[in-house]
Amino acid sequence: MSFKDYLQRNGYSAATICTYEKYLQVFIDWLGQELLHPDAVTYTELLDCMRWLQAKGCSRATVKAVLGVLRHFFDWRIAAGVGGHNPAAGVYIKGIPRRLPAGMLEMDTLQALYRDYCEQYGSTLCGRVILGLLVFQGLTVREIRRLEITDVQLREGMLQVRSGRAYNGRRLKLEAVQMRQLERCVRAHGELSKPAMRGMRLLNGHYLSGEVSKLLRALKKLHPAIKSVQQIRGSVITEWLHCYNVRQVQYMAGHKYASSTQRYQLTGLEDLQAQLEQHHPIEIGLRTHGDDHTK
């Protein structure tokens, strides 16, 4: 599988692929100049390449674009079985915000939050279903919105999550505590044959944003540390990484790239701070998230 094939399979347009190949060729030229093999590239060599680009007069936007292509390039090498690491994962241009996990919650806390919500807001079926899908399957709101009735496989205790441009499809286990809520949600649509149910949304997408907002307000009352649904998903992925390897969690989270999963490979805020302090911004303005001072 070539790099072009990899990009095509991940839904990139012909124009985008053409641009990516041009940026990649810049990196390949640098490798040839330095007599380096891609496997020999580490964080240090990557920074040398970025300095070289700046010395050639490349703008910060161009350096950022090349860096983004290299993240895809090294992900492709891992997927193709010809590379074992992605040195570009976690390296970003200073001034470009990066969303890293913060304020992670432990699984025990999330499960307690689910129980408390179900007890205190027993009449809100939609909210309980959404919270269960967030806490136990780590879905995004977009994925929840796209769920169809037939995706909930109650007999098998499984949930089919459909793929999208930004994420992969997967099949995830349902937890016993959420089965009753999901069964009630499915039955709310009435007794329909499977052909009739195809294409029918599990939840009303038109009202879902409002339901998520109400859910968040209720959760913040129960647990002031709750900030967003993204925080809940991030917490779930972080907890998964304590139990499974990166490839398994990449599948469970629906990430297209291993580097997306590796961002969550932290054990808590202390580990996050240690990572942020490990590397400082250098002259060309590269950074790993969070450092606001310069040398």
Automatic annotation (TrEMBL):
Domain Core-binding (CB): 1-78
Alphabetically ordered keywords of this record: DNA integration, DNA recombination, DNA-binding
InterPro entries: CB (IPR044068), DNA_brk_join_enz (IPR011010), Integrase-like_cat_sf (IPR013762), Integrase_recombinase_N (IPR010998), Integrase_SAM-like_N (IPR004107)
Gene Ontology molecular function: any one: DNA binding
GO biological processes: DNA integration; DNA recombination
Top-level taxon in the UniProt lineage: Bacteria
Keyword Calcium in annotation: no
Pfam families in alphabetical order: Phage_int_SAM_1
UniProt name for this protein: Core-binding (CB) domain-containing protein
Taxonomy of the source species: Bacteria, Pseudomonadati, Bacteroidota, Chitinophagia, Chitinophagales
